[in-house]
# Entry
Amino acid sequence: MHNTIDQDSLQPLLDRLAEANQSFAQRFPGDSALRQPVHTLYGGANLYKPGAAQKIAELARQHMSAYAPDAETFAQNLNITDQPELAALVFERVQAKLQNEPIEDHRADFEDGYGTRSDAEEDGHVESAALAMAKGLAAGNLPAGVGIRIKALTEEAKLRSLRTLDLFVSRLAVEAGGKFPPVFYVTLPKVTSVTQVEVLCATIDMLEKRIGILPDSIRIELMLENVQMLFDEAGDFALRKLVAAGNGRVTTVVLGTFDYTASCNIASSFQSHTHGAADFARQMLIAGLTATGVNVCDGITNIMPIPPHKGSALTPEQTKQNQMTVAAAWQLHFDNILHSMRLGIYQGWDLNPAQLPVRFAAVFYFYQSGLQEAQSRLATFIDKAAQASLTGNTFDDAATGQGLVNFFINGIECGALEESEAEATGLTMAELKTRSFVKIVEGRT
# Structure
């Protein structure tokens, strides 16, 4: 058999394909190899003191002890009583998580969670928070990720915002003896232009050089909080342009759910985590940022599991009201987290220590619920060396194989899964830690 088209005639077309394929690979290099936290805990910078993470962790443990002292109560509060064995396993692992790593990522907030204060007062809180973080760094007890949220770079707040950034980073570096947290974020809220991101990036560049810390020590998070920022003035998709303006520093884009839905003219009584407008924004974030190396983070549940009645001398009716209030807030937060994870968003915000048990409960429940199927499908993939396969009635391809690798790595990192549960697929931890299905298959074939 002979080709009708000779190689010389075909080569220009092959070159065009090569150029297009390389362009795609550059724009979508795949998920970041860096660990993505399952949550970020925010709190007012005025409350950020030495040992803040440890104090918050203790409050979270006390809350769980008070309102979920056993697996049965835990399951009732989360409305998962139909799976008692799964609930008991999740309960056990949440308890361990609250002991071993109760906070994965922590922010000292100088924006909505802090409010508007005088310059002198904010300067004081910048100093005290920087000193507290430096002490945590020296003691080795900071969460894996830390950082600050500055004010928006609006005309009214831009000078205050950049002053806070400068003072905090400068003081932290000095007090830490030139060292810096290995994972440090600056969160920029209410982004309205590419220029704001460029200015923040340029400011950080100057800070790193003049303070003498390593380049790219500071990462940037951007917050999507208004619908106008999905598209630019030309009608083009704006999110990737905002990320590109960060010159490689932007690692996460956060959806500010309630500000975003408010910007869509949705009445406050109808705003919610699961509103269709918020889901539209989530899908746009996923469509625009998946495989770019930039993580998507979801917003808050604004109903806190805080009991209305305080003290130890409560009436039976007050105790019942407390339990019902906490259980309702637990179920709402649990359902919201699962809603986001089922859409493909695996990180979200928490605002209160009492939300931490629910955060880990939902994340662990998600991974444990899908564990058996994921084990079977990934094992089949590996056995067939990445060829398309049929497991039960689910048809898989190599892209799904990468998703299954991510499932196990992410589940292990947050404590939802144990290494032995991943190794039941027939893979070794060394293979999984490559974070690449293609590399795993290449190593075996």
